[in-house]
Amino acid sequence: MAIKCKACVHWLPPSQLVEGLCTECRRRLGLPPQVTSAIHEPEPCALCGCDELVEAILRHRAGDGRVEPTGATYPMSSVANVFSDFTLAVDSTGAVGVLVALVCRACGHTQLFAEKPREIPIGPEYGTRLRKAKPRSPYRG
Ligand SMILES: [Zn+2]
Ligand SMILES: [Zn+2]
């Protein structure tokens, strides 16, 4: 039994669709290949306590009408350069630490989570650095 992709004319076996969308449509619509897993069990809104939340994969316009997932950073690769051995450049494939927003349906308060945080590369060329949080106060839960 084939099922029609929600966003194009293709009929495919259910195993080839993710959330009803084919691989090509997910790429075209700037969605990651798999369903997001960053947020396991959301807490009610920290500001108003509402329990209805919108989970949204952050995307940005990438020119020529396309959208791409927004990441904490983007992969880099070395490209040949006539002046030196290599030059680092942003790789056009994908994003690392794809950002997923949890938006409160009542007040709009928004929290961001990144997919696979341990895979986010650290370094000035990535615009990232490791920070250490101050210890939790013993007087707060
Ligand atoms: Zn499709
Ligand atoms: Zn709220």
Descriptive account of the structure:
- It is a single chain.
- This protein is mainly β and 141 residues long.
- It has 2 domains: 1-31; 36-125, no CATH class.
- 4% of the residues lie in helices and 28% in strands.
- It is built from 1 helix and 10 strands; from the N terminus they run ββαββββββββ.
- It has one helix at residues 23-28, and strands spanning 3-4, 11-12, 53-57, 59-61, 67-69, 71-73, 76-79, 87-90, 96-104, 110-114.
- Strands 3, 6, 9 and 10 form a 4-stranded antiparallel β-sheet that branches.
- The longest helix has 6 residues, at 23-28.
- The chain is flat and about 60 Å long.
- The chain starts with a strand and ends in a 27-residue tail after the last strand.
- The mean pLDDT is 89.
- It binds zinc ion (2 copies).
What is the N-to-C order of secondary-structure elements (H for helix, E for strand)? EEHEEEEEEEE
Largest sheet: 4 strands, antiparallel
* Shape by Cα distribution: flat
From the alpha carbons, calculate the radius of gyration and give it in angstroms.
19 Å
| Bound small-molecule species | zinc ion
Counted up, domains total 2
Number of helices: 1
| Percent of sequence in beta strands | 25-35%
Distance between the termini: 52 Å
Helix share of residues?
under 10%
> How many β strands by DSSP?
10
Give me the secondary-structure category. Answer: mainly beta
Mean pLDDT over the full residue set: 89
The stretches of 5 or more residues where confidence is low (pLDDT under 50) are none
